[in-house]
Amino acid sequence: MEGLNLSDTLFRLLYDRAYREKFVAEGEFSDFATIDRKELNRFGEAIERNTFTGPLLAGKSLEECFPQTMKILEEADPEFRRDFLLSEFFDSYSDLNHSGKFLSLEEAFYKFAVGAVTSLQAVALHEFLTAHLQILAVHANPAFRLNADLTQPLRNGYISIQRLGNQITLYACVTNKFISGPIDESVAEVLKKYFVRPAAEIRPEHKDLVEGLRELGFVPLSKT
Amino acid sequence: MTRFPEIKDRLGLGLGMDMPWGKVIGFQNEGDSGRPSPRVEKFLQSHSQDFSYFFFSFQPRNRNQLDLAEYQPAYESLLSHIPKSWNVALHQTTCNLGSAEPYGREQVIDFTNQLINTFQLRWVNEDLGIWSLRGKSLPYPLPPFLNAAGLAACIDNVAFYQERLHAPLLVEFPGFTDGSNFYIGKAHAYDYFRAVVEETNSPCTLDTGHLLSYQWLLGKRGEEIYSELERLPLSSCFEIHLSGCQVVNDRFIDFHHGIIMDEQITMLEKLLARCPNVKAVTFEDPKFDEHGVLIEKSLKNFLRLKEIVARWKA
After folding, report:
1. In the prediction, which pLDDT does A2 show?
2. Which chain B residues are Cβ-neighbours of A56 within 8 angstroms?
3. Least enclosed by CB within 10 Å: which of A91, A127, B99, B247?
């Protein structure tokens, strides 16, 4: 407990399984000696379980958002859940909607996952963007921080266009609707040119595509 | 001077309801708007004669930033189902009064004051607990750190809110159960709570289940479970809470399942006899069926509760 204040110690007892096990086995941390160790374990285990399987407010659980990523992480290191709770990414996350802008749990987990297993990049990115844009579709004023590197604002939502291997994939939310799927180069170009940035007038050869996207709910920033 | 709610007469029996979103007893989303579930509406319509005031507990609706506009239609709808003459209060869950770490409180204060002003809330109540740590909600609020540093932090927190909220803050004695029956520090929780209340001149709420759970945790049984009440800030008590509790496998659990234990009724009688300024007794989180009818198992002690409070109010 040397050098740690009350909140830090409690945080470690609840979120750091190894620290808790050491405390339960031998801890005599002054005021912390009054802790019922069985109950402490129960509480700490509930936190770990809830972090992964508890449904997030108006969303899915972390395990539902990242099924493939979890599977690969599990194979690489069955203790990855414990490591996530101890990571800097988890530390940067908050679920409170009154505490300022922090990472969402989904983004914290995505960043942890790609840091833990490099080959996960494509799978984790796909699962993260699917979850992130689905949540943004129903949260116009999110309390969590938006990932500005991966998503860009639209007039009526957000978009992310990712090239993974030979495939370009669109993830978007427009007016409470989530849209995702493979797109070709021309669609990606049109989206960037007229919907993400305000361009000059729409060129004649792009008009049909722009209209098609407009029917899907996208609102162009360009003159039509 | 203690900042009591400006209420002269005894209010009698009140109703307190936790109102989570998307639950059968709670709010339901209706597009951008919201309203109480049909079950809640039926209960409020059929039981309004049993109660004389009301509080609802704040629960976040979604992951948006706090914004009154997202909550106002649902709260208006909820309050349209209770008599206009009732006093209304708020049970907050975001003040984090037991925290010993720095944390942002301005948004909570702004939002709470908006609620107070919009709905003419007479008081705000919150358990003296640790509700979140490093920005992460805990599965259940923990008791505060029962030592000198924890006490100083609680006093600071309560004083901070008390100064800024537009209605009196009632500090509630925290629960010691609900899967969290451990505590940190060696101070007696009754003394500790009294110190917080007295140092901040706050009115307080004594929850019968929370008091019993603490004594249970200390190993008290039988008559002893009602001992040491004089160590509590009895003259500062404005409100008493009763929610459904139960002992399971020798654990005292504050289930909020609507079934009040005999021991809670006894504790209520002892508190009413000792708290000269108490004005409100709240039945918290009743449980009822789809027709809004109280569950059978809760009836016996609900009727006793009504009787005792009616006698006390008369």
Report:
1. 38
2. 63
3. B247
